[in-house]
Task: structure prediction
Amino acid sequence: YERRGRAMRAQMPKERTMFFFGWDALRMSVDTRDCTFGGWLGYNKGIYNVDGVPPKTKELKPRFAAVVHGQPDYAGHGKGHGTKGYIEMCERVDGDLAKVYQGFLDAGITPENSVFVFTADHGGLGMDHGGYFPQEMNRPLVIWGKGVKRNYRIEYPGNSCDTGATLAALLGLTPLRCWTGKPIDEAFEPK
Result:
């Protein structure tokens, strides 16, 4: 995210961007000066809280927003991927996503005028990840909204770098030479 954040600030200086994070490692890898707003998700009794996202979305009406929820990762490492505790945490995060999505809709940011992307950084196996098993390497990637093919399944195996490249392409950013990955053009209607 760091270099893409700087590219957004350089190439879209007047656009509003918003970045909420709930994963400690991002605090060190994202320069929040690259965003109109950058800050932590709420945190109470070991659980992230997204209640601050909808009002900030309504206030800023950002061109780009990222909400990174670290709770599934912590549950995977602490309880094991695919366990009852992990599934329960994912269900809670689904409720959080519904709140965040409703906040976008209330701000007038809808699938008719925007593109929404839901993804994760990795899968998991047992209490770990980083190996070469499909459960560790596969992750969800759901894209919907303006210009996105409906009910389309991406067939080729992409990776996290492709997700970043796709977001950059959607924003019209000129890729930096150091970026890897290719935009997932097949997911979009021809222009």
